[in-house]
Predict the structure of Fe2OG dioxygenase domain-containing protein.
Amino acid sequence: MASLGGVDTKNLELPKVDLSGLSITSFNEKAWAIVRAKIAQALEIYGGFEVIYNEISPELRNELLGVIVPELFSMPATSKFGDSQLPYQGWFFSKPGFPFFAIQFADSNALSTIQEYSNNIWPQGNNFFCNAVLNYTKHMQELMQIIHRMILESLGLEDHYESHIESLSYSIRFANYYKDVSDKGDTIALPPHKDPNYITIVCQHNVKGLEVENTCDEWIKTKPLTNSFTVLVGEALKAWTNGRLHAPNHRVKLKNEITKRYVVVFGTMPALTNDIINAPRELIDEQHPLLFKPFKYYDYIKYRFTKEKRMRMP
């Protein structure tokens, strides 16, 4: 049975890490160090883990994925949103040939921004939507900052934390995966791919479907709990850490009895005004030569989604 660093890589479950009760401003150093080591090992080997995080209540989760997201995709106005100049970065987008479409809000940590998006969908306003989304994004931003800090500390880059956090941009994506009721087989709703950003946190609700490829080329079916979320490393973070972290392939598969699946995806990426991906010099030495030349993240996004579909890193 294959193993790496004492961890069984044949295990068809992502590691689970409990971050409930931890915060940036107040934490137990011993507990923090134990969890940090677990995250570092999980990201190096699997490129992801299941995070248990009780700060987001089951009620908020149900509001989002049981009420708000289904209503969002039933609104005619959503399909009228135009794409941005960046591929898969606009409000409304789909992937040709696959039963999937999504709505993405950039810079979603301000009420005014969320209200602007909301007013385009519900001209009369929707305070329930705005408050729930803002509440969720604030908790997700706090969770992201904990994860980013633990990653930098595990790499000996504590001094980079403040500048790194200030350079981040946040987005929230609502996705709808579906298939025809007459389709009795399993359906690949989203093909294998790596995320281009820093970190992705996926919130599933009742309907599973996210699968992550391990280092043995086997697909791990994620098994989220009612208080857990799936964390995945993207290509930008793999490049920024000079390959120290693994960015995994993942896909969405709908089982034969499933006809619809909603998720909320929260992500971090470089800000538009500061998007150079350049590995810190502390991570470059004789044992770890530079793997990726410095590149502009948003240029890479445009390059990645050209018609040629060349998926190599810059």
Summary: Confidence is low (pLDDT under 50) at residues 1-7, 307-314. Residues 127-154 form the longest helix (28 residues). The chain has one domain: 16-272+287-304.
